[in-house]
Design a protein that fits this description.
heterotrimer, A mainly beta (149), B alpha/beta (351), C mainly beta (166), A: 149 residues, 1 helix, globular, C: 166 residues, mainly beta, 39% strand, ChsH2_Znr (chain C), NA-bd_OB-fold (chain C), Thioester_dehydratase-like (chain C), DUF35 domain-containing protein (chain C), Thiolase (chain B)
Chain lengths: 149, 351, 166
């Protein structure tokens, strides 16, 4: 039994779930819009536009039902440059995660900026959406954003 | 409402990879230690509550397994939060305040080494708009760092100072994972992970466990002459709609500070659950702690046990107040991306 | 509204995570023995309960199980179920029998398969023994035991197996 303490047993283990999520009436429209290369935001009574569309206003708690098209261009509100993407990232060359305030929106959306250098990026720079040619009605139907100079 | 005090706290040495020690084997020693320090057993505990994350272990209801570290016969009153154990403390305080229990055992545990923490934390995010993009925890934190730098709320030098000081403090913390001292040159030559964060701006992957015991006023003096009173505790959360938050400020912390009436309290010590270097100068400024000794343990930058580091901030504040006979301590715990959810704890020692 | 214009109720959402699972020290010790064809449990030094497979602690007393207890590969069926549900990825074709196997001298049971008997003849208390794979196929896994099969011994009254702390 002397050897038993010395060996450390390790085994690779993969966890996969294929969930189905209900998108609900508001987000369903957003995802359908994305597949048609349109980004929808939702407008509050005070004319504040959340994009991508929120179901409720986090400040006033009102239900948001009026949808309007925003983007596909916008400005960078913040960014972080991923120097070495890991295998779970959707882009495998250096890219940025960014908070992007789309034209016509008052809040920012999280997405990615690709096809640029780190030194090209700054808060306030303009970007525009690049669309996937194989849409799946998902937020990733926007493949990423690129600089729009 | 009953007054509640912290009477004991124990922490496992933080490990980069606990390897052959499973969660139960990490929890048992700290629970036994905190009992031994007070000369009590599970029989003296009225309520037991733990904090952990099943995704770290990759098994549904993995937290139930953690209970194998606890004496459960005769059956015990028990609960669990899928959060940092600081929130298990919060639930336990409510139990004691309501008179449901006179004592509570709180424990937290986490092994980040077996999985990929970056992808696991992505799953904390909004599953419709954010998680499908797989943003890693470092890139999300970096978005807030960028905003703070852009607005001159903090500087790159502040971030470097936070890292260098954490190592200096960590050198005298027996449980710290990282204790090697760093120089400005070493920091400056460290590679960026997600700009503006370098590898050294991020907490190390850590495995460990901690345990704490709280007691009502009647019970506290049975265990110690020196209870540390939980004078105030408050936690608030901000929108999960990341893009609608103002990352240059923290409305959740500001409202807790106001609610707990902390503006005029002179703190002797503070421990903040600041996992990334930029968060420390940001919160010190926000909480008016610039001249208060903060994160003397080294904080999460020298050891960051997921689901436990928030409880550790409270435990380390307690330890400093007991050891150095301090009067007022402030502790902070957080969860969610970019300091979304924050807990503020005001501890007081009566002389 | 025609069907293809109606909003979809559900959208697929894939979660995929990879781990390097490490066995705890008790499990490591246990599986190292299993690789050699032995079943070794651990006993609580306080209540003497014998756990197999051991997890390193006594969940009753909350202390480490430090005493190693070699066990035989014989035991009885504490309970069982006939599985009719096909589970994706499971190579075993239903219906099959899953049983709580209680080894002799152990105080907990574990799940394993029962074969070598008509399903209708399986009963609680039935005596069983492990059927091992050929030795050259043994690994660090309870799958070294293909299944448990009945042996010609009188049934056990499982109510006598109830744990009494000593």
């Amino acid at each position: 039994m002397s050897e038993t303490k010395a060996t450390l047993l390790k085994a690779p283990f993969e966890l996969s779930y294929k969930y189905k999520r209900s998108s609900g009436p508001i987000m369903s429209q957003v995802f359908e819009g994305l597949a048609k290369k349109k980004i929808l935001g939702s407008k509050s009574k005070a004319n504040k536009v959340y994009a991508p569309a929120a179901e409720y206003d986090p400040h006033t708690r009102e239900a948001l039902t009026e949808l309007i098209e925003v983007g596909p261009g916008g400005i960078i509100e913040s960014w972080s440059w991923v120097h070495q993407p890991s295998n779970h990232h959707l882009i495998q060359t250096p890219f940025a995660f960014a908070l992007i305030k789309l034209d016509g929106a008052d809040t920012a959306m999280l997405h990615m900026i690709s096809d640029c250098e780190k030194s090209d990026l700054a808060i306030g720079n303009r970007v525009k959406a690049v669309w996937s040619e194989t849409p799946t009605e998902s937020i990733a139907d926007i493949q990423h954003f690129i600089l729009d100079i | 409402m009953k007054k509640v005090a912290i009477v004991g706290y124990a922490q496992h040495k933080i490990l980069p990879n606990a390897g052959a020690l499973n969660e139960v084997e990490l929890i048992m020693p700290v629970v036994h230690k905190v009992f031994a320090d007070l000369g009590i057993s599970q029989d003296d505990i009225g309520f037991t509550c733990s904090g952990s994350c099943d995704y770290l272990q990759g098994a549904a209801f993995a937290f139930v397994e953690g209970l194998s570290a606890i004496q459960t016969y005769p059956p015990i009153k028990e609960s669990h939060v899928e959060m940092d154990a600081a929130w298990a403390l919060y639930e336990s305080i409510l139990k004691v305040k309501m008179g449901d229990a006179d004592t509570a055992l709180i424990y937290g545990f986490g092994k980040s080494s077996p999985g990929n923490l970056d992808s696991i934390i992505s799953l904390q995010m909004d599953p419709y708009y954010i998680a499908p993009l797989w943003p890693d925890r470092i890139s999300l934190a970096a978005l807030q760092a960028q905003v703070l730098l852009q607005n001159n709320i903090i500087s790159p030098d502040d971030m470097m100072a936070a890292v260098l000081e954490a190592r200096q403090h960590g050198a005298s913390n027996l449980n710290a994972l990282l204790t090697d001292l760093l120089t400005e040159d070493l920091y400056g030559s460290d590679a960026f992970k997600s700009s503006p964060l370098r590898g050294l701006d991020c907490p190390p992957i850590s495995d460990g466990a901690s345990a704490m015991i709280i007691a009502s006023e009647e019970k506290a003096f049975e265990y110690t002459d020196n209870p540390i009173w939980i004078e105030g505790i408050d936690h608030r959360i901000e929108s999960s709609n990341l893009g609608s938050r103002d990352l240059a400020t923290s409305p959740s912390i500001e409202s807790s500070v106001q609610h707990l009436q902390l503006k005029k309290v002179h703190f002797d010590v503070a421990e903040l659950h600041t996992q990334f270097s930029h968060e420390l100068p940001f919160l010190r400024k926000l909480l008016n702690l610039t001249n208060v000794p903060t994160n003397l343990s080294g904080g999460p930058l020298v050891g960051n046990v997921m689901m436990c580091a928030g409880l550790d901030a409270i435990g380390k504040t307690f330890e400093a107040m007991v050891n150095d006979q301090l009067t007022h301590g402030l502790a902070h715990a957080t969860s969610g991306p970019c300091l979304q959810h924050n807990m503020i704890v005001h501890l007081e020692r009566h002389s | 509204m025609s069907n293809d214009q109606a909003p979809k109720d559900y959208r697929e959402s894939l979660i995929h995570l990879e781990y390097q699972y490490t066995a705890g020290s008790a499990t490591t010790t246990f599986l190292n023995q299993v690789k050699e064809g032995r079943l070794v449990g651990q006993a609580c030094p306080k209540c003497q309960a014998v756990y197999v497979p051991p997890r390193g602690s006594c969940p009753r007393d909350g202390i480490a199980t430090t005493i190693e207890v070699p066990l035989t590969d014989k035991g009885c069926i504490e309970s069982f179920t006939v599985v009719h549900i096909p589970i994706p990825g499971n190579p075993i074709v239903p219906p099959y029998v899953c049983a709580m196997v209680r080894l002799d001298k152990a105080n907990i049971s574990f799940l394993h398969l029962i074969q070598g008997v008509e399903i209708d003849n399986i009963r609680i208390g039935m005596r069983i023994q492990a059927v091992w794979k050929p030795k050259e196929e043994w690994t660090h896994s309870l799958e070294n035991i293909k299944w448990f099969a009945p042996i010609d011994e009188p049934d056990i009254d499982v109510s006598t197996l109830r744990f009494q702390a000593s």
